[in-house]
């Protein structure tokens, strides 16, 4: 899952991003509203952590444009979830933020564990496909604990392999192009001409079939990679 952190305090933005990357998310940062709108117009994010008091364009205005459909990337299937972050704790401010389209609201200062829990809760709103515990065939993945198993066998995945498997498990039985994986599993620092997607998928496939079990993650020529729910 790919997250955009929009926060004008650079140290706080980097701290949030580092913590979320540690949880396996791909994270980009914008320090003002105009940059956020530009990133949102070109990248299909799954969730936005959005400060309200931003330079240039306020966060509630960014949220309003996003939810109105005028600020999302053409390749985005749905608008990303929005978690508002603000030092304003008055009831009226929270109501205004929610009325602008925010899905949840978190007042500063906040504990990172609460932020991470609220993000997991927001991602669960897609019908359970991104819930705390995912299952697909004999695969089980704990998004909160950062662990995955196949038929009870721990897979011992790297962070990027874990993020890949989570994305595949939220989109089972569908061929996913490498470009889509780049959009949702890697951040803006990835060289789009590198072979990193192939390398990461190969590593994941080896671990999935390490015990000789049928390979659930297959290549569909010309279309991408597909995780079969019934290998």
TrEMBL record:
What range(s) does the OmpR/PhoB-type domain occupy? 131-229
Question: What sequence ranges are listed for the domain Response regulatory?
Answer: 2-123
Q: Which Gene3D superfamilies match?
A: 3.40.50.2300, 6.10.250.690, Winged helix-like DNA-binding domain superfamily/Winged helix DNA-binding domain
Q: Which GO terms describe its molecular function?
A: phosphorelay response regulator activity; transcription cis-regulatory region binding
Q: Which residues form a coiled coil?
A: none
What InterPro entries does the entry give? CheY-like_superfamily, OmpR/PhoB-type_DNA-bd, Sig_transdc_resp-reg_receiver, WalR-like, WH-like_DNA-bd_sf
Q: Which UniProt keywords apply?
A: DNA-binding, Phosphoprotein
Per the database entry, where does the chain bind DNA?
Answer: 131-229
Q: Name one GO biological process term.
A: regulation of DNA-templated transcription
Note one Pfam family from the annotation: Response_reg
Q: Got a GO cellular component term for this one? A: cytosol
User: What are the 4-aspartylphosphate sites (modified residues) in this protein?
Assistant: 51
Q: What is this protein called?
A: Transcriptional regulator
The organism's lineage is: Bacteria, Bacillati, Actinomycetota, Actinomycetes, Kitasatosporales
